[in-house]
Write a structure and sequence with these properties.
mainly alpha, 61% helix, globular
Length: 143
Amino acid sequence: MSTANPKHRKSRGKSLGLKLRNTAAVIDRLKAGLTIEEFEHLCEAMDLSPQRLTAAAGIAPRTFARRKREGVLQPDESERVFRISALFDIAVEVFGDIDTARRWFNEPLRTLHGHAPLDYTETEPGAREVEDILGRLEHGVFS
């Protein structure tokens, strides 16, 4: 996922409770695996249940139960959770407040064929589409 606008590159992982300053830091953090505390921080930031976030990130309930016991997500799971976090952080910047971003992420959009942006973040192509919509909104293009 590219975040073409340099404004979105200042600090990454804010909704996870992280302040990663560059791509190398992001990669290192994802390879180590996000902690369950960081996952829960994102749930709180997005006002989502862990079940809703794990579904959006493609993590099966039994797998998540095991990860909770271990305290850390696997790198591929971490990457999917981070993708959602990055898009949510952009939405907060675009809309100017967290409550509007929360609502937008969960509302079905005609542009997404009646799906909510959160549902589209399940895949990389879907996440790119959500990012494109946010970019258009940021630049005043009706989406």
